[in-house]
Design brief:
It is a single chain. 46% of the residues lie in helices and 15% in strands. By secondary structure, it is an alpha+beta fold. It has two domains: 88 residues, Phosphorylase Kinase, domain 1, CATH 3.30.200.20; 202 residues, Alpha-Beta Complex (Aminoglycoside 3'-phosphotransferase, Chain: A, domain 2). Strand 4 and strand 5 form a beta hairpin. The model has no long low-confidence stretch (mean pLDDT 94).
Amino acid sequence: MAVIEDVVAKIEDWQGREVSIQPLSGGLTNTNYKVEVDGTPHFVRVPGESTELLAIDRNNEYHNTHAASKAGVAPKILHHLPEHDVMVIEFLDGTTMSKGTLNGMGMPTRMAQAIKTLHAGPRFYSDFNMFRLTEYYLRLCRERDIKIPAGYNERMETVKRIEGAMEAKPLSTVPCNNDLLAENYIDDGKQLWLIDYEYSGNNDPTFELGNSCQEMQFNDEQIVEVCKAYFGEATADKIARMKLNMIMSDVGWGLWAAIQANISSIDFDFWGWAIERWGRAEEKMDSKDFRVWLDQVKM
């Protein structure tokens, strides 16, 4: 019996009712389903193969999804089957966003407002640090002889410089999603919902902001808009923190993509994505502005 069928069979509330299962596209780590029970839709996510290697803690994910729901930016958990690491979640009636839609007029402000609401919510179960996650991913790649883009190891001294600069005046951590791809925003016409808390944890808020800007490939004007909407003003030090975290977004998630290229059965060009992200990171590290950002975060 497929995992999704086993899950459906185990939920007592669904017994004796009309149930239909529809696969959903778009998942990069898991397989997603829309399950209708007597016409009422539910969202079910079944973890992909070897996702534990990607440093996903399912207990952390469950706790933080519940906390984000309390904050008012994530759908409610309706059922939890820990033996399958499966959550049945409230199905959102809205539009799954894309880079194109989130680049629309006023969208950077709406994104920052949704993020700020999450960050003001209950603390998360554990912490997230992209510098430590990058080190873990590199160790995993060495241990399993996983191919990574050329130049990664040589650039780790630069990554240490980024961490050292940002530690000069650290910001208090807040509950962050940490993986806000465009598709992890759902617009119901009234608000933006934030979904998928696999990598969630308490973190520097400018990582969340920088990561989001990097995923959307925002220009400088849009980055300033996000910063101003979140902090009330766009100061040089906050913009610099976001810029450096944009680099770290590509450094860390680029390695994630390289690992996925080795272990995932999902039909997606993970290696191409790893190359693309690493290329962007190197370009920013080699830019004339890089040293300026390192200085500005210490202001």
